[in-house]
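Table S2 (text version). Query chain:
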Amino acid sequence: MSQSSAAVKAGAKNASPLEPKNSMFNQPIAVWAVAFASIIAFMGLGLVDPILPTMKDELGASDSQLTLLFTSYNAVMAVAMLITGAISSRLGVKKMLLSGIVIIAIFSALAGSVDDVMQIVWLRAGWGLGNAFFVATALAAIVSMSRVGVAKSIILFEVAVGLGISVGPLLGGELGAISWRGPFFGVACLMVVAFCLIFFMMPNKPAVAAAPKAPAQKISILDPFKALKHRALLIFGLSAALYNFGFFTLLVYAALVLGHLHHVDVHGLGYVFLGWGLCLAFTSVFTAPNLQKRQGTINAMCVQLLLFAATLFVMGYWATDKATVIVMVILAGAFLGNNNTLITTAVMNAAPVQRPVASAAYSFLRFIGGALAPYYSVKFQEWYGLSAPFYIGGGFVVLAVLLIWLTRKHLKHVDHAEAH
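Corresponding structure-token output:
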């Protein structure tokens, strides 16, 4: 009996009478452990956002220094993605996840204990290393252990990401109202919970799924670079780097604009980005699969990215109107949720390589955009004015659409892969 047949029969046997065997929620307990840990891990990204204005006031930090909190985090995460597959294939998935959680906990706790913003920047770099270990492995672990196939497993992962990102700002706002240190210590405490979930609920040696026709084997540090020779994977990675420039312009620069120009307090910022994250989570699971079926992955992706670019352009034109900026931030979450699910599913089936390798290669390029955007968004504001970062961020997203559309003949095969 093949592994896929066995997995289907096992799913049918363990499914509840009220829960269809092919439901996204019909998962082994180990998948739920990783999903819940992913929610907690991704809280770390949004937790910091509401306290940026407070850190500026209390630490005497400049906007450029504050953006380095995200630049160092994403830059280290991008580079570390290249080695995660090689380490994971030797260390094992469970140990890799636990190692990432421990690193995040240590560096987030240290970041909350210092008083200099540049020290926090360097500690955020260590935090990014831990996040790379966790994120690169979590998706592959969920896909490999799932009963219901790649597409629904990716949707479950994106839901976890969306929930983590949405709850993070709310928690960050509440803890940040007490002290800017609160969110950093809060992440460390949440990582202890995540560690316990993985340690007690996940088997020691879950099999890591490989892409069709790719035998399981030790992963080399060079494998992600070799994987980028596959044109589809390279195109998706480059387009993600471009649209991530817009993503982190929204996440960081919009928070600074709302905090400093419009005087939205730490609680308010938490609620704004809570709305953004909830829209992201909702569309990830409820609308992205339908868009893919009706329009096809590539068409749907281009439409959602153009709509996201439009929200950035609107924010640029009405940057001095608080209500418009808030509405556009929240609305952008819906378009980003759709796109995240579409592109993640496509990447997992873009090339005949092991999925951890595909994830590492794609994430390396993706987070380069995330590293550059926060710092340069503030520089663009200094050079060209208040609205410039939104316009330029939207322009990068449009470039991503052009890249995808002009090379679509090399990408259409993702709609015929196993995940769909």
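Notes on Table S2: Residues 1-19, 207-215 have pLDDT under 50 and may be disordered. The longest helix spans residues 231-261.
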